[in-house]
Amino acid sequence: MQRVTAQLVAGLLATVLSLLSERSWADSGGPSLAERVIWAVNAGGEAHVDVHGIHFKKDPLEGKIGKASDYGMRLPILRSSPEDQVLYQTERYNEDTFGYEVPIREEGEYILVMKYAEVYFAQSQQKVFDVRLNGHMVVKDLDIFERVGHSTAHDEIVPFSIKRGKLSVKGEVSTFSGKLTVEFVKGYYDNPKICALYVMKGTLEDVPKLQPHPGLEKPEEDEAEEEEESDGGEEGGKKKVSTDSKSRVQSGPRTPNPYAADNSSLMFPILVAFGVFIPTLFCLCRL
Q1: What secondary structure letter does DSSP report for 80?
Q2: 42 within some domain
Q3: Beta bridge partners of 49
Q4: Model-level pTM?
Q5: For position 85, which CATH number holds?
Q6: Three-state DSSP class for 25?
Q7: How many domains does the chain have?
Q8: Cα-Cα-Cα-Cα dihedral of 130, 92, 212, 128, to 10°?
Q9: Which of 89, 93, 146, 260 could join 124 in a cystine, given CB atoms 3.0 to 4.6 angstroms apart?
Q10: pLDDT tens digits, residue range 95-117?
């Protein structure tokens, strides 16, 4: 309980520091975080201004493609500030691939931030889809529940750059004609969706961080153990893998351990064989 409380306090402190850094950046003459955002949409929902001053527009796809859902409004969203939970509670989904077009007129370094929360399914492998950026695969097999669990905020962050008429993302380059197309690609499991998204000028360090996840954050003592074990050769590597698996959010029923079955039934025929063999051997010796 104390550890969870400490993590929540750390999350609130991180939010305060982020706001202070934005204020100092603005005071120093540079653009604020909100001023660096060139496009933002609250998918499936109404317009909203978040705690950082980012203006999310009402969904422009309303009545055109896909379906809007506010099913998540009945749930509190972990890792998100109370004022901005609406960005994760509404969503737009479609039975086929769909997306948004973002006009970009200036060259430079950019960040695409996509906001998600799984508010319906209660186990992994129920909703899995991809995300493409101008045809480039930037997120593969996104399973929100497997990443963070149920009713929990999750941000997918994709840096990209536009220089000399070329789009560079994930090590790939293509011709850029002034329009960024973000597509949510239909997969084998259910329908693709998005809760909110925005595009901003800047680097990864400029993106506001979500509050820590109690089930995903590693305790400090575990991190220290991993650093020590990483220098221990093969055994250290094995221990590190097991520690990582402990920090992973588990989903679905546990699979029974096939090696934990009771093997006492295998002893019965052996005991019967001994019971028959010993008297027979005794009789043969008497003869």
Answers
A1: S
A2: yes
A3: 55
A4: 0.69
A5: 2.60.120.430
A6: helix
A7: 1
A8: -30
A9: 146
A10: 999 999 999 999 999 999 999 99
